[in-house]
Structure formats: structure tokens, C-alpha cells
Amino acid sequence: MEDAQLSKLFEAAARNTGISLALPSAGMARHHKSRFLAMSEGHIWVESISNESELLDEMIRSGKPLTVDFRAGDCNVTFSSRVVSRDPEYCLGGREDVLVEALRLECPAELKSVQRRSHYRVRTKSAELSARVWRIARNADLKTRLTPDRELQTEIRDLSLGGMGVVFRGKDGQTPKVIDGEDVRVELRSENGVLTLDGRVRCPPVNSDPGTKLAGIQWTAAERTLQGRQTLTQLARLVAGIEREELRRVRLGLAG
């Protein structure tokens, strides 16, 4: 495990961070709330689940791993680990007068970290909103000429102050050649006018249906200039308006 990951795990254990434990059972997973207790000598101690003692003892015998999930800052962190033992009278913080049932887990080989979204996303299916997207060079200015051969056929799925979810469509049924991390310029058109923003494409590892590609576009550097901040203010109004319309449709039973 890398030093940065090990440090993140030590910090979570030291703070007794709340966690979720997923125990495999009959081809499914049983999820339980728990917390870190301590980390020492290459092992991690977590609070046990008292009503799952039989399943936990079976996991110790068989060596089946459980999955641990917790939050660290703006990330969700997950790892798998084998249960080494179960201690029904673990001394919390080394105090013999505070006993809890605990599990001793192997220290994982790696942590998987996924950043959580920090902006609320509104669905745009019912909104009068469209987008045009062009590939651009990194740090291209607003005077950059946008040519038809660099335009991507795009359908909006959702929108937020941090970015938008899209479907790229290829020509003649071919999957569009979109590269994760490439820069794009976006024109958002609504009844209130046109907003121009720069963004960076984020492609998931799993592809979508043939001829299309699901992706996200993360806005870049908009807050660094006065014009960019003004655009973000307009975008916030647009997102709020779509959210209000969606709530109205929900109240009227029109949302689908």
C-alpha cells in the first residue's frame, strides 16, 4: 500500500471513523454500520456486529473477505479484507473498563477511492435546453475558431455547477472517438440565451451502447476570470430554474 493510502487509513482509524461493513451471505451482501477502533501491527480493529457472530465465525474459518466502506474528505474509500479473529471483549482505547466486541482485519493491499459529487445535478430531460460541444486545445482562448469537423454530437443527461452528464453519438452508428481528459468548449442554449463554458471530458471505464458513449464534462477554470464568474452565476440561475420546474412536475405527477 502506498504511503498516502496508509496515512489515510491511519487517520480514519485514529478518529474512530464510521464505516459500513458488507458481509457476503448466500450470494448477497449484508450491510451493517460499524466504526474503526484502532490500527496496529499490520491489522485493523473495527467494531463487530453482535447479531452476525455465526456468519463472522464462518468467514474467519473460510477466509472469505468482507468489504469496508468509509468517507475520507470528499472521497468514498473502499477496501476488502479478511477477518482474522473476533474478540468479544476488546479494550477500547486500552481501557479495561470499556469493552466492545471487535473484529481484527488484515491490513488491505490497496484502497479504492472515488470522489463524491459536490454539486447537485438536475435532470434535463424535460427542460428546454440543448448543447453544442467542440474539441479544443488545452487553454484555448474564447477567440478560438470552432470548426464543424471538431464538433461532437451531444445529448445532455444532467447539469450542475460542476459539470454535466452527456451522451456522445457517433456518425453512421460508429462509437464516437472521445478521449478521457480532452478539453472541450460547450455552448448551452436555453430560453434565456447562450452560455459558453470550457470543460474536460471524463469517460467511465465501461462503454455504453454501440454508436454512443456516456461521459461527463467537468467545467474548468471558469471561476478564475470575471467573465467566467459571471457565466457561473448565470449557470446557477439556469440550474435553479430547471430544479424548480422538476419539483413542479413532481407535485403535478408529471415527472417520469
What would your notes on this structure say?
There is one protein chain. The protein folds into 2 domains: 3-115, Pnp Oxidase, Chain A (Roll); 122-251, predicted glycosyltransferase like domains (Thrombin, subunit H). The chain has 3 helices and 14 strands. The radius of gyration is 24 Å and the shape is elongated. 19% of the residues lie in helices and 44% in strands. The longest helix is centred in the last third of the chain and has 26 residues, at 226-251. The protein has a 6-stranded antiparallel β-barrel with strand order 1-2-3-6-5-4. A 6-stranded antiparallel β-barrel has the order 9-10-11-14-13-12. The model has no long low-confidence stretch (mean pLDDT 86). The protein has 256 residues and is α+β, with helices and mostly antiparallel strands.
Give a quick account of the main beta sheet: strands, pairing sense, barrel closure. Answer: 6 strands, antiparallel, barrel
CATH superfamily of the largest domain: predicted glycosyltransferase like domains
Strand order of the largest sheet: 1-2-3-6-5-4
Structural class: alpha+beta
Percent of residues in helices comes to: 10-25%
Give me the strand/helix succession. HEEEHEEEEEEEEEEEH
CATH class of the largest domain: Mainly Beta
